[in-house]
Design goal:
The structure holds two protein chains of two kinds.
Chain A (H helix, E strand, L loop, with lengths): L2 H7 L15 E6 L3 H4 L4 H4 L5 H4 L2 H14 L2 E7 L10 H8 L8 E2 L2 E2 L21 E5 L10 H8 L3 E7 L1 H14 L3 E10 L3 H12 L7 E3 L1 H10 L3
Parallel strand pairs in A: 1-2, 1-6, 2-5, 6-7, 7-8
Antiparallel strand pairs in A: 3-4
Chain B lengths: L32 E6 L3 H6 L3 H16 L3 E7 L7 H8 L25 E5 L10 H7 L4 E6 L2 H14 L3 E9 L4 H16 L3 E3 L1 H8 L3
Parallel strand pairs in B: 1-2, 1-4, 2-3, 4-5, 5-6
Classes of the chains: A alpha/beta, B alpha/beta.
Chain lengths: 232, 214
C-alpha cells in the first residue's frame, strides 16, 4: 500500500490540516500521578476503580517514546497544591473531604495532592527526563495560573497532542483552554480515560462534534503517522 | 483593629441542587452572587429552539433584578479582525454570528438592568480575554448562577474556568440547552461527578424559590 493511499484512508490528524514542523508540536501528558492512577494513591485509597486510568499507561508510554525519538517537546503536568494550601480553594477542598480523605489530608502515603509528597509524583513508568517541561497546576486546566501559555509562545509551539487523565476533567479543561489560546490541540483517545466510562465516551462525542469545535480527536496510530509526515 | 460592623444583608436559603445543597458553605446573598446569561442571542435561541430555556432565564433575571443582584451577559460573535479563533470554527462548519448581525443580538426578551456587564467573546469561555474575573472580584462576588446556550459550549467552558478560579457555581439545568439532549445531560453529569468537580446543577424552580423567599 502506498503512503498516499494510507493517508487518504485516514482523516487528517490536525483539523486545520498539516503537515506541521516538529518544532511547533508538543506532547502533553496530563496528571499521570500516583494519587490518580497508581495502587495506593488517593483514588485507590478512596476505594475507587483505577483500572481505567491505569489502562492508558502503556499507550501513553508508547506516545512518550515516539515523541522522544522524534525530538518534539514533552510536557508533563502535575495537579497539586502548596504545603500551606494557600492555593487551594475552600470549595475544592470541601468537595474532596466528603469522600473521607480530601486534598491536603494525610493519606497512607503522604498528604493528598500536596507538592513534594509521594502521591503527587508522576508514576515511574512515565517519569519526566531532563529537558522536558513539567507544569505544576492548582486547577483542572493546565493553563490556569501556570506558565504553560508563555512557555509555548516562547518556544513557538502552537500544536499540542494531549494525553493523560482524566478525559472528562483536566484533559477536557486543557483542550478547551488551548483552543481559547489559539493553540490547535488533538486528543489521543486511546491515551486518555476517565474513572467512569460513560463520562469518557460522552466527552469524546462532545469533542468530536462539529468537526472538533475545540480541537481534534485522533489515536496513537494517527500520532505515529503524523510524526512520520511532519517536517523536521 | 475591630472589624467594621457588617451591613444587614438578606440571607438566602440553600438551593436543593445536585450533588449537594448549594452553596457548599451555605453563604450566599444577592450581594455576593451573580446571575450569568451566556449566549442567549437571537441566532442560538432560534437554531437550538431554546425558547423555553430563554424563558426560564428571563424569570431568573426578573427575580435577580428585584434583589439588585449582579447580572453578567455574554455574547459570542466575530468581527472583521476576528483572529484565528472564530475563523477556525467557521472553517470547520460551526457558525459564529458576525457582530452587528441579527443572529448576534441578544434575544429581545432578555431585559438587562442598567448596570449589567455585557461582554463579547469569540470563543466559549466568558473569562478568556475579558475583565470578567476582576469585575466579579471588585463586586465581592463568590457565587455564580449560570444559564445559557449551548450547555457544552459557553456554559460549560465558562463554568470550568470559574470553578478553577474558586467561584462556587450552580448551572441551572432547564435554563441551559445543548446542541443535543445527550450532550446537555452528559455535560451536566460531568459537572456533578466526584461530589461536584465543577459545581452543582439545579432546576430553575429551586433557584426561583430561594430568590423569592426574601
Amino acid at each position: 500500500m502506498s503512503m498516499t493511499a494510507r493517508q487518504e484512508e485516514r482523516p487528517a490528524f490536525w483539523p486545520l490540516g498539516g503537515p506541521v514542523e516538529k518544532t511547533r508540536i508538543a506532547l502533553v501528558i496530563i496528571d499521570m500521578q500516583v494519587d490518580f492512577c497508581a495502587p495506593g494513591g488517593w483514588v485507590d485509597q478512596l476505594g475507587e476503580d483505577v483500572s481505567n486510568t491505569r489502562s492508558v499507561i502503556a499507550p501513553i508510554r508508547e506516545a512518550l517514546v515516539a515523541a522522544r525519538a522524534a525530538g518534539i517537546l514533552v510536557i508533563h503536568t502535575r495537579e497539586g497544591h502548596a504545603p500551606d494550601l494557600s492555593d487551594l480553594h475552600a470549595n475544592k477542598q470541601w468537595r474532596t473531604r466528603v469522600h473521607g480523605l480530601g486534598i491536603g489530608d494525610a493519606g497512607r502515603d503522604g498528604r493528598i495532592l500536596v507538592q513534594g509528597e509521594p502521591g503527587w509524583q508522576i508514576i515511574p513508568e512515565l517519569a519526566p527526563e531532563a529537558g522536558e517541561l513539567v507544569i505544576d497546576k492548582p486547577g483542572k486546566s493546565s493553563f490556569h495560573r501556570t506558565t504553560l501559555a508563555d512557555e509555548l509562545a516562547r518556544r513557538g509551539i502552537d500544536r499540542l497532542v494531549i494525553t493523560g487523565v482524566t478525559s472528562d476533567c483536566c484533559v477536557q479543561s486543557t483542550l478547551r483552554d488551548g483552543y481559547e489560546h489559539g493553540i490547535e490541540c488533538v486528543l489521543l483517545q486511546d491515551c486518555t480515560a476517565a474513572v467512569e466510562s460513560p463520562n469518557h465516551q460522552a466527552t469524546l462525542e462532545i469533542l468530536k462534534a462539529y468537526g472538533g469545535r475545540w480541537g481534534g480527536v485522533s489515536d496513537l496510530s494517527g500520532f505515529h503517522a503524523m510524526l512520520e509526515a511532519a517536517n523536521a | 483593629m475591630p472589624d467594621a460592623p457588617l451591613p444587614i444583608l438578606p440571607t438566602l436559603p440553600p438551593i436543593a441542587a445536585r450533588p449537594y445543597a448549594w452553596p457548599f458553605d451555605g453563604r450566599w446573598s444577592p450581594h455576593d452572587t451573580a446571575l450569568m446569561l451566556l449566549g442567549f442571542q437571537a441566532g442560538p435561541v432560534a437554531s437550538l429552539a431554546a425558547q423555553a430555556e430563554r424563558d426560564a432565564a428571563c424569570a431568573l433575571l426578573a427575580a435577580a433584578n428585584g434583589l439588585g443582584m449582579t447580572v453578567i451577559a455574554v455574547r459570542r460573535g466575530y468581527t472583521a479582525g476576528e483572529g484565528p479563533l472564530a475563523a477556525r470554527r467557521r472553517t470547520l462548519g460551526d457558525p459564529i454570528p458576525a457582530h452587528g448581525s441579527v443572529e448576534w443580538a441578544l434575544d429581545a426578551q432578555i431585559a438587562l438592568p442598567q448596570d449589567a456587564l455585557l461582554l463579547d467573546i469569540a470563543g466559549d469561555n466568558g473569562f478568556f480575554g475579558t475583565d470578567l474575573e476582576d469585575h466579579l472580584r471588585r463586586r465581592g462576588i463568590r457565587n455564580l448562577l449560570i444559564t445559557g446556550l449551548p450547555t457544552e459550549g459557553l456554559v460549560h467552558a465558562t463554568q470550568r474556568a470559574a470553578n478553577d478560579m474558586g467561584f462556587e457555581c450552580l448551572a441551572v439545568a432547564d435554563a441551559c440547552k445543548g446542541t443535543s439532549d445527550e450532550r446537555h445531560a452528559a455535560q451536566l453529569r460531568i459537572t456533578t461527578f466526584g461530589n461536584g468537580l465543577f459545581g452543582t446543577v439545579a432546576p430553575a424552580a429551586e433557584v426561583l424559590s430561594a430568590l423569592r423567599s426574601v
